[in-house]
Specification:
95 residues
């Protein structure tokens, strides 16, 4: 018997997706920057997420963003003579 409903942002991936959705809807102020208050308020007050859920989602967003930035940097380092980013395609071996 369950007395408490599941929290919608208990999963860090769900919280990260919602944070990115909110961040993408906010208009940048200067140099692509946005005010953190414009993300905090909707997540914590309007959607009733707990600070722990917000923090877990923010950490996951940060890790994913850093991983993407590192991959882009590695691709640029490997292909300096090219004008844009290069898409790497994973192939299966032995076929």
């Amino acid at each position: 018997m369950k007395f408490v409903a599941d929290r919608s942002f208990a999963d860090p991936e769900a919280a990260a997706r919602k944070l990115m959705e909110i961040a993408n809807s906010v208009k940048p102020v200067q140099d692509g920057r946005i005010h953190i208050e414009k993300i905090n308020w909707p997540m914590l007050h309007d959607l009733k997420a707990t600070p722990a859920e917000y923090k877990a989602g923010a950490r996951l967003c940060h890790r994913q963003r850093m991983a993407v930035a590192a991959r882009k940097r590695d691709v640029r380092e490997a292909h300096r003579g090219r004008r844009g980013d290069v898409r790497l395609i994973r192939t299966t071996t032995g076929q």
